[in-house]
Design brief:
Length: 439
Amino acid sequence: MGARGQMSPRSAPSRVLRSFCSGQPRHSVAPAVAPKPPISRALPFEAIPRSSPNAWVNLYQFWRTNSFPNFHHIMQKNFQNLGPIYRETLGTYDSVHLLLPRDAAVLFQSEGIFPRRMGINSWIAHRTLRNHKCGVFLLNGEDWRSDRLILNKEVISPVGTRKFLPFLNTVAEDFAESIHRLIRKNARRSLTVDLHRDLFRFTLEADKCIQNIYQEFCLGQPRKYSGIMAELLLQEEMPLDSIKANMTELTAGSVDTTAMPLLFTLFELARNPQVQTALREEVKAAAVSSRELSKVMNDMPLLKGAIKETLRLYPVGITVQRYPMRDVVLQNYCVPAGTLCQVGLYAMGRSPEVFRDPERYDPSRWTGKEDSSFKALAFGFGSRQCIGRRLAEAEMTLFLMHILRNFKIDTVSKADLKTVYGFILMPEKPPLLTFRPID
């Protein structure tokens, strides 16, 4: 309550929401303006459509049919059959699944100052068993916030990312040169290859830079920017075991999660030559206008759009999750605080309700004036978005810039890739890509 017994502005909406969710009548208040049409009451949580009436039978069916690798396709089908919200129960697992950006917006607005997402219990148990600290990927509450605020300055801030660009650019240049060397050994002057393992090594290389600088730091070599870990050590704001935990999680969480989008992007460029040509022209123009890496990257909006377009069609994680800190109304259903809610990124990205011509690979859809609010959620949203987001975007942008500048890309088969979900989304069988040098 506010001063002199008046209701504070903040308490009014929550009281209205509680009355919706509980079904209890509200006290009538004389309207100051002309009355609006009555608002329909929110339906109870139990009324949300369910994918299966029995949680344990549903779990058995998933196990019997080996459905977990196809969970993204099952979610897509459930949204088509049940609508933009449904409830999935598998054994003790109970989750509300959401399709539309406007519901994602409501969900993120209710996340509070300590946002929570699904934990990886096996990883947490492993760290606890060995008496190792957890990093921001696994932590929650005050411990998460404390580490996150320190890491933000070096990992996700624009200033911190700019300092790391030379590392990423050097590795991208080396990768392009390694392809050139292989092509020079081939009489056909081309290279056809499954690039999955090479991309894995590429994304790992920047992380090796992070791990190796500790030795340089201990040897007292001349002070220069040596990477994220060195900066954290110099700041002395975080205990060494917390630095180790967070650097371990950064490395583990940034290899395949970057390699897979690069592989999907190369495949889409290979089967969409007009898009590839447009991107190459943009890369050439940006390189002429400036030599400073951050400015070059800002001059390539279509390339940034290509990365967003890849993540729309092939999100690394097929959902983004939150536990609302208060009761919320989603699609006119009351969802209690603390309920696991998941936005279906794979299904949203391919939904005609959200995107025009959703199956078409079109980076330009991200460069116009079309409303894209809460449609690009592959890195999450808000204070708990992926902490490596800017580094991953920079790494992918620089890699693609050097590849497009040096090679034409083709693919043996232009048929749609079959995908499977195994903690991240990946191709069932990696595509064969052909690289030809640009003379």
